[in-house]
Amino acid sequence: MINIKQYKSIVFDCDGVVLDSNIVKTEAYFRTAKNLGATDAQAKALMDYHVKLGGISRYHKFDWYVREVLQQLVTDAAIQPLLDNFSSELEEGLMQCKLAKGIFDLRDATPDTNWMILSGGDQQEIRTLFTKRKISHMFNGGLFGSPDNKDEVLAREIASGNLQLPALFLGDSKYDFEAATRAGLDFVFISEWTEVPNWQAYCAESKITTLHNISQLLGQSTIK
Fold first, then answer.
1. Which residues are CB-contacts of 83 (< 8 A; sequence separation ≥ 6)?
2. CA distance 168 to 186
3. Beta-carbon neighbour count of residue 32 at 10 Å?
4. Which stretch of DSSP H or E encloses residue 2?
């Protein structure tokens, strides 16, 4: 049983937890590759790799794509057009995608809790997006993303005292669970928008608490 009132900090993954944006990003990977001359097979390879590595930085994914799929040297000149095109593809979709049900009520229910976004997405992009969508103020602990990975950010924010334990991580990927566990945070898997295949079996095998969405935390002092 998890008592939601015990936590000093709550860490949220962004895509698939706070925003219904997983499909937006998945499609953007495919279109980015195609825009820059990829075959359908090459674009699908990048898209599939993104889904497989949910929660991992785009920098790593494009590095892999250039090296393994295009079989080219990984240089700034090779990576930057991918990053730029990907950001352009994402911008409109991220402004339009749905915000998690109940998030404002959950913020009201945890007024003394430090909230933080920890995403595999680009940090500046997330900060700009959340400002435009007028939700950045809810995350008083900060909005963090790549190029730093989640392990690095968690370690840094715990060391600085910004992320205080006990803390809860709400995520929708295997990497979210692994990073939370390594940092000593409790973890709940949010399933509604996840792209993890066979997530039920994974969570059962790893004994992970699951909820359909974050609104299920509302009005509950404990969850199973």
1. 58, 59, 62
2. 5
3. 26
4. strand 2-3
